[in-house]
Amino acid sequence: MQIVLVLLAIYGTTTNALRVDQFVERPIGMQNGDVLDAQITASSSFDKQSVGPQNARLHSELASGAWCPKPQINSKSYEFLQVTLNDTFLITSVETQGRYGNGTGREFASHYMIDYMRPGSQWIRYRNRSGHVYMDGNFDTTTPVIRALDPPIVASRIRIVPSSKNTRTVCMRAEIHGWKHEGVIYYSTVPDGSRLDTLDFKDNMFENSQMYTESGITRGLGLLTDGYVAQTSPFEKNQMNNSWIGWNRDTTDGRVTILFEFEEIHNFTDVVLATFGNRIDGIDVIFSQDGKTFPLFSQISSSERQTLNNTSRRYDFRVPLHNRAGRKVRISIKFSSDWMFLTEVHFTSAANLTLMTEKVPTPESATTQKLSVIGGIIFLLIFVGSIYCISVCLKRRQKNKSVDSNVKKDLIITHMGNKPSCHVFPSNGKLSNGHYEVANDILYTRSQKSTLLSVSSKSSSSCRVIPPTWNDFNFPPPPEPNKEEHTYSQPVSPENSSNGSYKSVKKVPALKKYPTSALLIGKAIGEGKFTMIKECIIFGGLKCAHKSSKEEDCVHGTRAMGDEISCLLKCGRHPRIVELYGVDESYNLLLEPVEYGCIRNFWLASETSLDTEFLARICKDVFSAMAYLESIRIVHGHFTPNNILLDGEFHAKICSPRGPSHHAQLRYSAPESIVNNEFTHKSDAWAVSTTVYEMAYQCRQRPYEELTNEQIVDNARALLDHQPHAHVPLIPTVFPYEIMQLLTRSFRIEQTDRPTFERFWKAFSEIN
Prior knowledge:
It is a single chain. This protein is α+β, with helices and mostly antiparallel strands. 22% of the residues lie in helices and 26% in strands. α10 runs antiparallel to α12 and α10 packs antiparallel against α15. The radius of gyration is 29 Å and the shape is globular. The N terminus is likely disordered. One of its GO terms (molecular function) is protein kinase activity. It is found in: Cell membrane; Cell projection, Axon; Perikaryon. It is a single-pass type I membrane protein.
């Protein structure tokens, strides 16, 4: 409520036109039942019936009185209570209780973290204004404790993640407070604020969303939409932390561009910029309804009148927007003073202004509306039923057609030259004609399907069919593979590979394409910037990892997976490269499961000191795989520790080779990749050696730890210019002299001076 009062005071009568109850903080509905049981889920439950997530409602004593995760909780746990909301909300506080259980409970969460997401985002870890992620929870089982969120959260899903310094049993009840959000859901700034000497006016409160615009600018929410409007000078010593974003004229050329994104199209009446400085020379505001094009006819320009008073001051710059419609709004600001600061940007739309004039329907009109709605629903059901019948008939007619004709209808994403943009072209046949075939042996009959989806053995004797759970599936053993042509085969072990060569590889048969109905997809086990990996079992009992794009229409994710399919098909079955089993109907990848996951998570969870023999074995496996990729001319393109996975025998496999069109993180990229967008086997050598640097510290020290992204780019330019102050990662001496020399040569600026992966593999083979 304090945030609302500040906004009302600063933005005046226009904001006062909003309906007041829209801004009143209130429970979203855990306690009163507005949030349904199906909307409350959890990572696990000690007992689903008695302490499942449906019992986690504040001030309630349902069943055993709270939600209790199955394992005990410590500082490394990730157990969560998740609430899925029906809309996007501004969440201003979280209220928690322990488990009273009618006097039998003793469990509560002393601390917790919050993860959240909204349309288009992945899970984001909440940080408050001071940068802390841990919230103080409860001190007993009965007292409700409410914690205000500063800044508030804009989310459609929220997770409460209990944590404890000491391992203990935790139970909790919860309520979420806030109101429906109709404002900005993302913004991005170019540039992102200025840092000069000791003055840092970047948006340090900006959420770690891992979301990017098409041009690679970070999207999210931060200081400009947190509801707090600073009144004092940004240069005051007692100024509240994270209150102003500032841009210096010398570093920005006096130009700033901010892109605001909304969930729906709005008709905007005005925008207010809460600013500090001398004056703003001019503002251009332009709108996009489709989220892609910004027609010039929609542009509105405004400038501030010249005044005799040139002293810096705190003031509001209001721009009338004349009911312009848009889903995205781009604001370009020009200034000539030394600094320009913003503390908040607030939009008002015509939809909000008309809320006070909404008419209450009379009983007669309400009855008419109900009849109209019922008639519309009946018509819609008939229409959908007709469409469904027609589609079923068409599918039956096309049942015997070649799958290749369907594959050619798909699109693959192609990267043209060094252009940063992506283009979509029809498939040129690379992924058809022999590479894909329908897995006919997986297309089971109705009777087989009913056997697979049988009623749980735990169900009662009633005739009601209970939906199966993960534990209810009893898979038959996988079919005996044909000895002449293996549908699935175990990877070649290093011991059985011919002569220990890194080229030991089996030929891949035609890649199978599995119907979605033959896949049982489980929980998420990993994620990348644009992709998500989940547990999966193919009908017949074959376990795999299901890799899909996070967003259905994500161009980057689709292109990444398309390129990965092409590379893995060319790789065949190499013992040190994760195998591609097939794809589903949407061309999501079905990959070989690797037991212990990525090397970074493995080492971060380990408390033992560095075992150099184990590190050398991992390096040998990695260089074996990279030498093979080099021999068949495949550039990995984005190598980091996340691309090294450990199997059940603690051997390494590399994953996700995608070619030269997918950039690695800056900290692992060669200077020519950062500056010139040049990706080769030699830039792969730099990236892999940088990964070895991190592994030598058991992944507890990142390369260029002390540098920001901007400084890493400057360092890359300095390296290419052969400037003496530029530096490269310095790997500690953990290997014999010859290998240390090879690693050192990998950081040579002249690419021809860097050793081949085959040379690396031979050197590591001599010490293993």
